Amino acid sequence: MSPEDGVLGAAFDAVAAQRLAGTDALLEHSYPGDTGTRQPVHTVYVPADAFHPDLPRQWGRRALEAAGGTGVRALAAAVAPAGLDEVLVDRVAGAVEHKLAAEPIEDLRIDFEDGFGDRGDEEEDQYARRVSRDLALAVRNGAAPPFVGIRFKCFEASTRARGLRTLDLFLTTLVREGRLRESGHSEDGLPRGLVLTLPKVSTLEQAQVMVEACGRLEQGLGLPDGRLRFEVQMETAPMLMGPDGRSAIGPIVHGTGGRVEALHYGTYDYSDSLQIAAEYQSMEHPAADHAKAVMQVAVAGTGVRLSDGSTNVLPTGDEQQRRAAWALHARLVRRSLERGFYQGWDLHPAQLPTRFLATYFFYRQGFDAAARRLRNYAHRVESEIMDEPATARALARFVHRGVLCGAVTEAELEDAAGLDGRALFALAHPKAAAGSAASTTGGSRA
């Protein structure tokens, strides 16, 4: 080999490939990145005995009524970021009014845990079956939210058997109902956006028991392998620091065979586990920020999504109290979005207007600048800002989320950025886009 050809050569390439085979496999399988599919902007929790097929539409009507005689437009003006153009404020208000009428709940969790309580086995059995039948009816009638499922009782010793039984009865009944009348369901009889929530997780072993339960349910119900995935609620101190001084979040994410799809922060249970006084329990307490920062680092690049928690200050009092509660909720929603938590919990219909207003304002306020920079980057236009690929991905992900949640239309995207939805997706999620292209040409997903 001549000096002009370099020193290392193909032989060292082979050595490097051999030494790094484990790293390559780890990055491919454990850090695949975000798929770029839709993530709901919120999760609504309702007790199991309160659920009925028309509940989402009912919540939409109640949300509009809560805004009062002046409607969403007056509320939009009250919670809009300072200096925002009045035309844009009015446009966002109109979009939110339409949202509350057409799809007021994006993700619904029918709650058999704290929201339902201990009512004895016979009553919970009845509701597990009834909820399944009512949910199947809602799916058939096109009244179900795009994402929907249950939260069952946790796997601590006192509630473990009850939680597993409710999960079993719910899924068994739902599969049977879905297969009897397939309209709106996927081929396996389950809603396409089914979500299962495992609360109060403290150890990897609890999540692994859930993995085994999912496998046995799939086998017994004739479901495809891997069909059942679940969310983990981060509500206990051992999730952040176990007896060995380490966080359980990483092992749970990486030690459950890809079954974990999301990690949700539980504001009040986690605060209570740290003995924070009730008056100071909040999504923005320093302890909450610390926990969520650990969650964020632990799931980065894994494709596991994050959700912030809730505020229990509801806009249900007199006019002064409602205005203060709406202002607080809008600020907390915005705060979560700015910190990279694109989903949160809502507990009452009156919180829906500010959930969507704050979310839409977040994306609309940054859209024009982001779209202009994307246009310059994609079309190689020289400008005062020279964005690198990583920054372009961040800009594209921001705009893509805005499109997916309805804050920005595809027509606005094409007009402002000169990109269609497919081109935006390729910029925002290049690994997922490459995988999609490979699958259509007979290749494998990267």
Verbal overview:
54% of the residues lie in helices and 9% in strands. The chain contains 18 helices and eight strands. The chain has an eight-stranded parallel sheet. It starts with 8 loop residues before the first helix and ends in a 6-residue tail after the last helix.
Furnish the topology, listing elements before pairings.
Layout: H1 9-19, H2 21-30, E1 42-47, H3 55-66, H4 71-79, H5 86-102, E2 107-111, H6 121-140, E3 147-151, H7 160-180, E4 194-198, H8 204-221, E5 230-234, H9 237-240, H10 249-254, E6 260-265, H11 267-273, H12 286-299, E7 305-307, H13 319-338, E8 344-346, H14 352-378, H15 389-405, H16 410-417, H17 421-428, H18 430-440
Parallel strand pairs: 1-2, 1-8, 2-3, 3-4, 4-5, 5-6, 6-7
Physical arrangement of strands within the biggest beta sheet: 7-6-5-4-3-2-1-8
CATH class of the domain at 42-348: Alpha Beta
The backbone outline, from C-alpha atoms, is: globular
CATH topology of the domain at 42-348: TIM Barrel
Which architecture name of the domain at 42-348 does CATH use?
Answer: Alpha-Beta Barrel
The named CATH superfamily of the domain at 42-348: Phosphoenolpyruvate-binding domains
Tally of individual helices? 18
N-to-C CA distance: 34 Å
Largest sheet: 8 strands, parallel
Record field, number of beta strands = 8
Give the helix proportion (percent range): 40-55%
In the predicted model, the low-confidence regions spanning at least 5 consecutive residues are 438-446
Q: Indicate the radius of gyration in whole angstroms.
A: 23 Å
Structural class: alpha/beta
- Helix and strand sequence: HHEHHHEHEHEHEHHEHHEHEHHHHH
| Beta-strand proportion | 5-15%
Report the average pLDDT across residues.
92
